[in-house]
Amino acid sequence: MREIMHRDALREAIAEEMRKDEHLFLMAYDVGKYGGEHRISGNLYEMFGDLRVKDAPISEQGIVGCCIGAAITGCRSIVEIPFMDFMPLCMDMIVNQAAKLYHMFGGQMNVPMVILTAAGGYIRAAQQHSQCFEAWVAHVPGLKTVMPSTPYDAKGLMKTAINDPNPVVFIEHKKLLPMKGEVPEEEYEIPFGQADIKREGTDATIVATSYTVHLALQAADNLQKKGISVEVVDPRTLVPLDKATILESVKKTTKLVIVHDAHVTGGFGGEIAAIVADEAFGYLDAPIKRVGAKWTPIPFPSVMEDYVLPGLDDIEAAVREVVG
Amino acid sequence: MESLKKLDKNLVSRMYEGMLKIRHFEETQSRVFRAGEQEGFTHVYLGEEAIAVGACLNLNPDDFITSTHRGHGHMIAKGGDFKKMMGELYGRTTGSCLGRSGSLHIADRSIGMLGANGIVGDGNPIAVGAGYSILLRGTKQVVVSFFGDGATNQGTFHESLNMAASFNLPVIFVIENNGLSCGTITASVCKVLENLGDRSVAYGIPGENIDGMDVVEVYQTVEKAVDRARAGQGPTLVNCKTFRHHGHFEGDIDIRDEADINEALSHDAIKEFEERMLKECLITQQKIDEEHKRIQQLVDEAVEFARNSPLPKPEDAMKFVYAE
What is the ipTM of this complex? Predict the structure, then answer.
């Protein structure tokens, strides 16, 4: 099968859907001729023109609000917030408007839109370009939260996100965007709420999201050489969350390590740990371990960033600890 | 002041009827709310009737408006149904939002009323989006965004006017300049308050500063702005100077000087319009009395309807979180 980059898989998904719906548009700063801050929009401007691939001023509230207004009057849109660190600028629009209108107005107006953003560290981008706020988003009823880890998942989930009648926060990772993976030529969608077992194992379960799925897989490779068999579960969407697959895996392996590069404190890993403690406590043979960023803003130099963010050593150590 | 005889007779009576409908609806609303018949918070539009009515008389049923936390007047002016409105204010299933949002988020998509909004200034980006949707769908609709002087100091004001101007969108921004930002005297926090319409210069669009107590002046100013918008000539900013009869919300304290309030109350938009009509022999005192009575009866019927409407079920709270 052909291999394409994660960012190209996203662009393919967007282009395929834009061809089908003339009222679907992409709006953000830099998405036009420039081709997107992460080169996701690429040549979409040439393909679909200025009105549907719209450069906007650097006005996050204005952009997201504009797409909400368009959504409740008959259009669909994809907004790009290039760095998730900028999302606090428009959290009001996302949380108070996009997530609420359908409920507030008793179902009169729904808000079909995708808020595409790139989170995460490991790229030496310092305190204001390295954060993961998926737990903020996943805390708000009315929003859906997507975090793919492969080009295949990214494309299928993006197509589902565009066709979803609700606001979907689609969280990319800067480290993932240039990574290549197998993506079939034909169109497909991946339903929300279906976790993917990226590697089967018997001794411990790692639930990892986004870029850290790849760290978990590498850690699993290393641990296999030492005789420890690790299962890696990628939820792919946090809201809705496929609890069943996670619980089933934990019931089989009896140990759980959760990995994300967001901060451990208040991170989504805490939610998964609570669900497992609540619904599969009797199956656990060891305490649940969480691996994530240390409690500090993310610094820029590699010597410090690699210390703060979870690495292979941290993941392997956590698995060894639960396996005992 | 222009002679009313120059205007279409039917238009004059619609101006009068529109203002009376808001006045009677809200005086009753204030009374029943203060009597404890409704839960929550309510912000009334009393005193500002000429703005909503003058602006909305230029609109077609399929044109859009965005509103504020003080939204009853806008909804009535756009053609809102008294019974559905009162049902909503009473939190009953017959309400326009099925009784789940009350006064703060009253909305009716079927008449283009995109919702009263609890976040000051958030209507503007949504109006921009409705305008963008009009452009993308290629219709001749327009959008009127109502907001207060307080909202002009939110970032959304700047972002929205810049975007609407840059994208040449059919949006009319109507400031209801009552000199109050919630409970704060706006003049104490805003150096240039009187002529907020002059801010249009910063965006390269037309701006007007008008008497918001004169329904004819509002109508004629917005008429020009709507004509421009429908002709593809972009947005307009209209600053309407007005006076809010009550405090920020019903039951709130009022920090304004009592003498100032009494002076302002002596220039009531409806009373002065009645005097104009009488002077120009367009109406008789008897007809005025009849009109008051007729409209009050409609309000009373709506109150009775709402009082006798069913309450939602507790579990209805869980509906409309996500659209299917």
Answer: 0.97
Which chain A residue's Cα is nearest to B63? A73
Query: Contact at 8 Å (CB) between B115 and B66?
Result: yes
B19 to each of A131, A187, B50, B288, how far by Cα in Å? Answer: 52, 56, 6, 13
**Domain segments of chain B as ranges:** 4-318
Class of domain A3-182: alpha beta
Which is the CATH superfamily of the domain at B4-318?
A: Thiamin diphosphate (ThDP)-binding fold, Pyr/PP domains (3.40.50.970)
- Residue B207 has a pLDDT of 98
CATH architecture of A196-323: 3-Layer(aba) Sandwich (3.40)
For residue B119, the chain A residue with the least C-alpha distance is A96
Q: pLDDT of B152-210, one tens digit each?
A: 999 999 999 999 999 999 999 999 999 999 989 999 999 989 999 999 999 999 999 99
Note the pLDDT of residue B255.
87
* Segment among A39-53, B64-78, B113-127, B245-259 with least mean pLDDT: B245-259
Nearest CB neighbour to A66, from listed B97, B109, B129 = B129
Q: What is d(CA A101, CA B184) in angstroms, rounded to the nearest whole number?
A: 28
* pLDDT exceeds 90 at position B1: no
> A24-28 and A76-81: which strand pairing?
parallel
Which amino acids of A are annotated catalytic? 129
